[in-house]
Amino acid sequence: xxxxxxxxxxxxxxxxxxxxxxxxxxxxxxxxxxxxxxxxxxxxxxxxxxxxxxxxxxxxxxxxxxxxxxxxxxxxxxxxxxxxxxxxxxxxxxxxxxxxxxxxxxxxxxxxxxxxxxxxxxxxxxxxxxxxxxxxxxxxxxxxxxxxxxxxxxxxxxxxxxxxxxxxxxxxxxxxxxxxxxxxxxxxxxxxxxxxxxxxxxxxxxxxxxxxxxxxxxxxxxxxxxxxx
Length: 229
What we know:
This protein has 229 residues and is an alpha/beta fold. The chain is built from 8 helices and 12 strands.
């Protein structure tokens, strides 16, 4: 059965564009034109992916994203926004979105991002490692759980996947493009700011001093490295 996608967007011309290209790529679609309708459809149906506009009537996209993530930690959410300011993107990612794409966008890029998010979800579900650790950080990949100093970490899906990738490759210098390719599964060039945002969020949760990190180090001009503590 084809995967089912909920499109949450209030601009009908954008809905038409997204719906046509998503269905052309082999997906089933459902549409919600405002926040209240989106929440109702989320409860009444099962979806494999949600395409969510940030600016919506009645309930905005950030609140919808937070609500959906509180109810379902695994469903992939692709945020669509006309706002290209870093703060807006950070807010969207912090609310639980897995990825974002800014308007105007090409249908080809949208579908590529959808496939990438779904591949990452499928890969995570098949993860059979029992435990990963570095320093005082412990991760249970097959349980979607991470602990720091014995306390559970509250992570979004993408923060969790990035942390797992860092720990699996501890001691190695990883470029931003490499992280985009492996964690976000991009097959085309993407905005590397998304990597920096997620690294900053991880540091908020595991570093005692973010200006002098002990776990995730910046390698200037290249990327990041998880220290093998």
